[in-house]
Design brief:
Layout (H helix, E strand, L loop, with lengths): L3 E4 L2 E3 L5 E7 L8 E6 L6 E6 L6 E3 L7 E6 L4 E6 L8 E9 L8 E4 L3 E5 L2
Parallel strand pairs: 2-11
Antiparallel strand pairs: 1-3, 3-8, 4-5, 4-9, 5-6, 7-8, 9-10, 9-11
């Protein structure tokens, strides 16, 4: 069992930046990891994923070229650097580990509790 805890969310103005972190309770170096986000009344949206070695990264169309996913297996930490933030990036962001299928499918074994990101002036 892997427990995931996100942090780093908050309120930021449009055009600003935030860095989210996700710390695991145990080693997750063999797992592909992902970030998803969800707003009230909408389906969970794929944001980004990274393979176990950090050699392959995947991004959703709405965040590509603005967000960067990274991981530090020695520290059991997953990160999401978010730049050029827009109001439509406002959501609860979740980290996830160990997908059962495609990394963008949302079918993961482990999930964090989420952290709120609000982009507003």
């Amino acid at each position: 069992q892997v427990q995931l805890v996100e942090s780093g969310g908050g309120l930021v103005e449009p055009g600003g930046s935030l860095r989210l972190s996700c710390v695991a309770s145990s080693r997750f170096s063999s797992y592909t990891l992902g970030w998803f986000r969800q707003t009230s009344g909408k389906d969970r949206e794929f944001v980004a994923a990274i393979n176990s070695l950090g050699s392959a990264r995947f991004y959703g169309d709405s965040v590509r070229n603005r967000f960067t996913i990274s991981r530090d297996n020695a520290k059991n930490t997953l990160s999401l650097e978010m730049n050029s933030l827009k109001p439509e990036d406002t959501a609860v962001y979740y980290c996830a580990a160990h997908p059962r299928g495609e990394v963008w499918s949302g079918d993961y074994d482990y999930w964090g509790q989420g952290t709120q990101v609000t982009v507003s002036s």
